[in-house]
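[09:14] KT: can someone run the structure on this one? pasting the chain below
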Amino acid sequence: MKKLFLGLAIAAAPLMFAQKTAEVTVIPPKKELPAELSKEKVNLYNENLMKFLAALKISDRSAIDALLSDKVKTLATDEILNKVKDGIDYTKKLTVLKAGYYVAMDGEGLPNLKYKYADDSENKEVISVVFEDGGKILGVMPVNKN
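[09:31] RB: done, structure tokens below
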């Protein structure tokens, strides 16, 4: 009799543990990004970048802070701004090379404009700028002059 109960206990043990269920959560899909940026958005972002570069050229910190996103204002030290300033040639005219989206690590798509110098036919020197939807600048990656 003991052997029978022992056998049934061993046979029933996996069935008892198999009854656990996991909770399933549904993740809502991210908002769909359009294939391209509209001309109005590109013009807004371009205008804000030109204001930023003009303020950067004369080191006007208040104007720079007004154009930077709140997310990066505290991170943008004078040393970092000087590196950005040194990486841009102010004697050449910038033109928009490509407009699209930069996908951040959290999956959020941010507007991204890539600029080239007007006289650069091979696109060797490209400046990348990431914006918020409202037009504030999140990041500027100038050409390395090393």
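[09:33] KT: thanks! Helices lie at 2-17, 39-57, 61-67, 70-73, 78-86.
[09:34] RB: yep, looked fine to me
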